[in-house]
């Protein structure tokens, strides 16, 4: 950037400035992780506990239609744990932004010549990188309990890409929640309380053919179910459907991408708009 551009802010490319600001704030988010090792520990322990509990406690009690044996459930389970963990990324964004709001840091950012979208995008991108590390830990844990992918590394990589895209989408939801509530404590509850029914009313832990008939269509069109089904399809893991001829069963990858795009399209503008109104008081 030249001195003339600094003297005349109108010459600065808004998109370039937003990307630059987002990169700086993403780096700020990542630099805080080594300084708060307890956050890293708890973020990795929770999904590991879910893997071990469901694999060894419930694995023999939940049959997979057409795939007998406890190992079938472990392979069925891992995509659900991956998707649940990426969905729970909502909490990190909501609590982090609520904490910044309560400390007045967001108001300080507003006083600087920064792109408003870059402030939130930086937080979101930093949390996506952090969740990529958490997912790596879960992959190792999955291999330990007997999970494998069967369609090659390329398709497995595509599944992990969908999971990170889903985390990116859900983090925008968390950003909106964090900017809308009054404290980090409220943000922690508001960010997760609605996710538990959404997660358990899906195919993450129980095959949809095992659910009551009235809940089966709801579960199969659930956005978390779409992400889980896409990952199982790409991993080559068991993925039974109550309606095998329906769109969710026939096109799980496309439906997962549609859900991610829709969530981003709705919540990213709302979060940026909320940031503007929340910091203009």
UniProtKB/TrEMBL annotation:
PANTHER family listed in its UniProt record: NODULATION PROTEIN J (PTHR43229)
The keyword Transmembrane helix appears for this protein: yes
Annotated ABC transmembrane type-2 domain residues: 38-278
Similarity comment: family membership: Belongs to the ABC-2 integral membrane protein family.
Any one GO molecular-function label of the UniProt entry: ABC-type transporter activity
Name by which UniProt lists this protein: Transport permease protein
Topology in membrane: Multi-pass membrane protein
Entry's Gene Ontology BP terms: response to antibiotic
Keyword Nucleus: no
Record's GO cellular component terms: ATP-binding cassette (ABC) transporter complex
Compartments where found: Cell membrane; Membrane
């Amino acid at each position: 950037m030249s001195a003339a551009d600094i003297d005349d802010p109108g010459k600065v490319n808004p998109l370039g400035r937003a990307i630059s600001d987002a990169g700086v704030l993403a780096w700020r988010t990542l630099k805080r992780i080594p300084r708060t090792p307890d956050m890293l520990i708890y973020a990795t322990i929770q999904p590991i506990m879910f893997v071990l509990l469901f694999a060894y406690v419930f694995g023999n009690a939940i049959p997979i239609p057409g795939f007998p044996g406890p190992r079938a459930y472990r392979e069925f389970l891992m995509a659900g744990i991956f998707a649940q963990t990426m969905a729970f990324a909502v909490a990190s964004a909501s609590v982090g932004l609520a904490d910044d709001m309560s400390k007045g840091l967001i108001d300080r950012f507003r006083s600087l010549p920064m792109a408003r979208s870059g402030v939130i995008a930086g937080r979101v991108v930093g949390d996506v990188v952090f969740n990529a590390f958490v997912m790596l830990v879960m992959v190792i844990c999955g291999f330990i309990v007997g999970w494998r992918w069967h369609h090659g590394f390329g398709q497995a990589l595509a599944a992990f890409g969908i999971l990170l895209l889903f985390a990116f989408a859900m983090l925008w939801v968390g950003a909106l929640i964090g900017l809308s509530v009054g404290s980090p404590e409220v943000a922690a509850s508001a960010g997760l309380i609605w996710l538990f029914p959404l997660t358990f009313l899906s195919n993450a832990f129980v095959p949809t053919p095992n659910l009551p008939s009235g809940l089966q269509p709801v579960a199969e069109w659930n956005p978390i179910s779409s992400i889980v089904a896409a990952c199982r399809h790409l991993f080559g893991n068991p993925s039974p459907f109550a309606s095998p001829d329906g769109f969710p069963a026939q096109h799980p990858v496309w439906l997962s991408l549609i859900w991610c795009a829709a969530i981003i399209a709705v919540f990213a503008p709302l979060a940026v708009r909320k940031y503007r109104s929340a910091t203009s008081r």
